[in-house]
Amino acid sequence: MIGKEIISEKYTTIAHATEIMDERADFDELSYEHGCSLDYLRKFSTISKDDADAMFEQLVNLGLTEKMAVKIIDLLPETEEDLKIIFYRVDVPENKDEILEVVSKFK
């Protein structure tokens, strides 16, 4: 990032990043690095941007931080053990069953 500065930062899901990169690819030819990034995003994007946005809203309403909500959306945990991996530095929330229920609705 020579000559560029960070203006702002925001956590985003793989689904949203895929949409951004797809729009950029439609508008202009991508560099090699951007092409590799888009390929990665397409391989690992498991849900649509609309579903990711809806799930994000529900997870944040359950009291999760934006960072944790994005990680849950990207990884789509199925069990409490999966959640423990995501929350490895902090305690798993007491409403873990509600979190897993939200995730299961969008799979």
UniProtKB/TrEMBL annotation:
GO cellular component assignments: cytoplasm; DNA-directed RNA polymerase complex
Enzyme Commission number, as recorded: 2.7.7.6
InterPro entries recorded: HRDC-like_sf, HRDC_dom_sf, Rpb4/RPC9, Rpo4
GO BP, sorted A to Z: DNA-templated transcription initiation
Keywords: Cytoplasm, DNA-directed RNA polymerase, Nucleotidyltransferase, Transcription, Transferase
Catalyzed reactions: RNA(n) + a ribonucleoside 5'-triphosphate = RNA(n+1) + diphosphate
Main location: cytoplasm
Entry-linked Gene3D superfamilies: 6.10.140.10, HRDC domain
Enzyme class at the top of the EC tree: transferase
Molecular function terms, GO-annotated: DNA-directed RNA polymerase activity; nucleotide binding
Cellular localisation: Cytoplasm
Subunit architecture: Part of the RNA polymerase complex. Forms a stalk with Rpo7 that extends from the main structure.
UniProt similarity note: Belongs to the eukaryotic RPB4 RNA polymerase subunit family.
Entries under NCBIfam families matching the protein: PRK14981.1-6
Its job: DNA-dependent RNA polymerase (RNAP) catalyzes the transcription of DNA into RNA using the four ribonucleoside triphosphates as substrates. This subunit is less well bound than the others.
The protein's name: DNA-directed RNA polymerase subunit Rpo4
Source species: Methanococcus maripaludis (Methanococcus deltae)
Gene assigned in the entry: rpo4
